[in-house]
Amino acid sequence: MAVTISPFALIGNLAFRRVWVSGALSNVNRWLEILAVGVWVYDRSGSAFDVTLMFMLRMLPLMLFGALAGSLAERFDRRALVMAGLCTLTASSTALGLLAAFGDLMLWHVAAGAFLNGMVWACEMPLRRTMLGDLAGDGRVAQAMGFDTATNNATRMLGPVVGGGLLEGIGISGAFFAGAILNLLSLLLMVRVHIESGRAGAASAGVFTILRDGFRYIRANRPLVATLVVTVIYNIWGFPMTSMVPVIGKEELGLSAFPVGVLQSAEGLGALLGALGIAWFGRAARFRRIYVVGVAVYMASAIVFAASPWFLLSGTILVAAGIGGACFSTMQSTLTFLGASPEMRNRAMGVLTICIGTGPIGFLHLGLLAEWLGAHTAVIVIAIEGLVMLALALLLWPEARQ
């Protein structure tokens, strides 16, 4: 009988603990800023499309640079690349905070900051998660990914509440300055991490050669292709719903910034509960079923959320959506990491980032629908489309559920 290892045992590894906490601080800022920017942009422009545009700009670099980041991880020190990104984010948040404090902040400044944030995220996600997987070892990679996902989802619960409070109490400048402090603390932790660079065996190959070989490898691996197809479906037809929470909260429920933050944090609460459950009770034989069912639950919850006229019901449904999202996000990294051979993992995680980066297509689709049909109807339409695409994918790639 297999013994389940508590994910908290991983904290005994000092390097793992520092990488984990560094990522947690950075993610608090990410969700704090997403909420604050979403509400600020909607108050400023009154356009649901502008709100989704900010999300789209954050996601676009994942599609453009994701595989490149995974390949660069084989030629350069992962830790150094993550630190460079954190330096960039600290400077960006400080600059935006100063512009806001002096009354000079404009929509294009925020858009540029969102794109820059997405560029760093495109590098940070595959690099940091590969570092965590290496530090945990193959036998505990599911626990490591589940614990990290649980932590990230806790930041999704904390960040929007803090962002809404700062926006309502201080203004958008307070949210950006708080982000600069969090990124600086994250950087200081990463400075103290000592870990193998992970560059062995790749120094002689060019970046685009690595990319080409990575795509060839993935194409021949049907279970890995099935995992990535489901990731694309979630990111085009599922995750974009998040961008409509501030719009629906203000338009349909009549909420101010802080209650909208509380509403958005409900999804983070559900995601935290779901990820912790997977970290403790997940079994390898169930990984793919957890993955697929999580996507279906998320999309079904989006439909009910969009139709809800009550704050309490909306929050409860977002908790359910968060549980489904945690099942998806934990398993996508775990299945990708374990589905690739050790020497191909950086490349596989980079391609996973590209698949996550297909989100801008969904955000654009949802934004245009919201301008045409209204936010709540647009969410219902896109979620139904996603359920249909998921059913089709299961027929074409039965490996996704086996």
Structural commentary:
With 402 residues, the chain is an all-alpha fold. Helix content is 80%, strand content 0%. It has 15 helices and no strands. The model is unreliable at 198-204 (pLDDT under 50).
Features:
402 residues; mainly alpha; 15 helices; 80% helix
Outline:
The chain is mainly alpha-helical and 402 residues long.
Low-confidence segments, given as residue ranges, are: 198-204
The helix content is: over 70%
Overall 3D shape = globular
How many E-type strands? 0
Structural class computed from helices and strand pairing = mainly alpha
| Largest pleated sheet | none
Question: How do the helices and strands follow one another from N- to C-terminus?
Answer: HHHHHHHHHHHHHHH
Blueprint (SSEs and pairs):
Layout (H helix, E strand, L loop, with lengths): L13 H32 L2 H25 L5 H24 L5 H30 L4 H29 L2 H20 L15 H13 L2 H16 L7 H7 L5 H25 L5 H21 L3 H29 L5 H12 L2 H15 L1 H22 L6
